[in-house]
Amino acid sequence: MKTFQRAWFCVVIILTAQLTYAQTIIKGKVIDQITSQPIEYAVIKTDASFHTTITDRSGNFKLITSSKPSALTISCMGYVTRQISASGLTGNMLIALNRGAINLDEVQISPKLNNASFYTLSTLDLNLRPVNSSQDLMRLVPGLFIAQHMGGGKAEQIFVRGFDADHGTDLNVSVDGMPVNMVSHIHGQGYADLHFLIPETVATYDFGKGPYYTDKGDFTTAGYLNYTTKDALDKSMISVEGGQFNTFRVAGLIDLLGSKAKQNGENAYIAGEYNYTDGAFKLPEQYKRANLFGKYTKQLGANNKLSLSASTFSTSWIASGEIPERAVAAGTTAIDDNGDPVKIPAAPVTIDRFGTIDNAQGGKSTRVNAIAKLTTDLKNNWTMDNQLYYTHYTFLLHVNSTFFAKDSINGDERQQQEARDLYGYNGKLNKHNYWGNNLLTSSIGLSTRFDRTYGREYSNVTEQYQFLDDISKGDIRQNNTGIYLDETLETGKWMFNAGLRFDYFNFNYRDTTKTNVIISPKINIQYTANSTTQFYLKAGKGFHSNNAIAVVGNNGLQTLPAAYGMDLGLNWKPVPHLYINAALWYLYLQQEFVYTDDGDIAPGGKTRREGIDFSARYQFTNWLFTDMNVNIARSRLVDSVAGHGYLALAPPFTSTGGLDFKLNNGINGGLSYRYMHSRPGNNTNTLIADGYYVTDLKVNYTKKRYELGLSIENLFNTKWNEFEAEEVSRLKGEPAPIDQMSFTPGTPFFAKLRVALFF
Fold first, then answer.
1. Strands (E), 620-746
2. Closest of 279, 335, 331, 333 to residue 149, by C-alpha
3. Is 20 a residue whose pLDDT tops 70?
4. Do 183 and 154 form a contact (C-beta atoms < 8 A)?
5. Residues 205 and 724 sit within 8 Å (Cβ to Cβ)
6. Is the pLDDT at 608 greater than 50, yes or no?
7. Using one digit for the tens of pLDDT, what is the confidence trace for 235-260?
8. Cβ(606)–Cβ(637) under 8 Å?
9. CA distance 543 to 559
10. Contact 299, 257 (CB under 8 A)
11. What pLDDT does 116 receive?
12. CA distance readout (Å), 485 to 388, 425, 431
């Protein structure tokens, strides 16, 4: 035994010596030439192509080779590739990259990208496709569709991976790490209103599909979506936009410090926008929205970076709401008392598709945010993040989608209102352990949020907003604390990631408290065969929490129903100008939540989804690009009788794509399409939500000091429905309620002009 121990000790000494002998360690930081900000995901490659690494979010990299390379190549999408000869490989290098044209040739499939499988897609799309609204930003995510059905000021309905995710129930949404989803919201669990985000301030966005990410907690079932705002501006900007339907927008970004401050690691800017439109409806929407945002960043010595930001948002609007199909035409489909579909005549009084039945609908909302973040390099390969955030929020909505079905005298007008304060903390400690050219990254994280909702009232009112009776009323206090451990091993062509997350919840409604915990394991495996082919397998458990009122009431709903998922995917560059991402996926949900517009929550049972995601990006020339996303999903209730297992509004097939161009003379833009296939309107598929195909056009002429732009939504003036849902409604003059689809019409041909000045 002692002989064996001595022999093993000698082997370890020899291996250690081999690893340390003649090793060359190359370290540095990659920054943007104009803003001096760090560049994440820049690829660092030696002349021996198997020696590759990428920069982290601070722009830092570390590459260990057996001998000193003759040259180092640094590349990143949207930047000019730079090469450094052996004589320049000294010390801790600071490497600045100049911005350049988008070139798919420069896209590297690297084993170091870890779980950032969609980084290439998000970077390409954000660089090529002009955006000027939060809706544009959300539509950049492949397979994600949105719909508005109660006026432009309310959070969009979200459809993704076979989910009608309501307003965010199954998609974790955040901005700069601050949660957007509102727990136990009066209008739906996970309500995620992104209208406070000014699109011109967005630097990057990151998304992931499925429940596979240890640092993401509540609502991460279908996936997550995070936007990161710019730390610095490369230029200031003022823009004015106007179009049909009395549409007007003015926006501005102003750099408050000069280039010298940037070089010293200090940046500050403010941004603002004001929007107004009457929309395409016969009843003017009078939609108003004002946003103001400010951000300050400062490098504190060599090891600390401080970021402070604040924003305010307010909006108000008049909604035309949803319209029953029979109010527009005869021969529409309804469900009779036996549950069978029948054709019915038109309503006693018909209206235009863009007409209004109840003109008392509408709302207003405000949100104030503050974020403070400190990033610290603790030396010896340790880093730490600490973030605090605060939100004050108000919401008021008047809605009536059933008209006189419940109250034939006063009508079914309902009022939803709440105010809340949200406090939170995100912390993370990272350790990088290098062993030869292998890397083990260990992370421990802590996140906690406290929601205090007060003045929460859900009531029946008249069309003049006179109180009739309460449906529910009472303040809510809700806490969620999550702790997670995450280990990632990168060795050669392989990457192994395993994580474990623990979440604690405390729900309090009307001074009654309930608590619960959930543990969520995750595992991700990635194999990079070569610089053109990469495979990945993701598996994990996630969850979405329930509304506190349902938890305390315990009316047949689980507190924290779990989701179990798996992805088998591929990143592939079969030719230099083509990038493909594809995945087969599966998701099982312990309990589907069905949220109705009147605030009710119904248990939907266990569900199962499986599908295929496919995305391709191709560059024809140095100025012409094309993209296509195809998403197929089969969504079903698990425990259901034959013919009753459909999930209402779950999209079975969607596709987006288009052509984008970026000429050297300043002309740029794109032609894009959105296609959603017809989908079940109820769980028997006897009612149908119609599909649609809509084409949009954007053309800009961009020069150094100005930009002229034209955007057209629904270029071919297609007749389409943006939103549809089954409603049991009753109109004036009807003897009884009728069960059929109601709809909100989609935007017709809508042209806007834009002028922007840069300075």
1. 624-637, 653-662, 667-676, 679-680, 688-689, 692-702, 706-713, 721-729, 738-745
2. 279
3. no
4. no
5. no
6. yes
7. 999 999 999 999 999 999 999 998 88
8. yes
9. 10
10. no
11. 61
12. 20, 17, 12
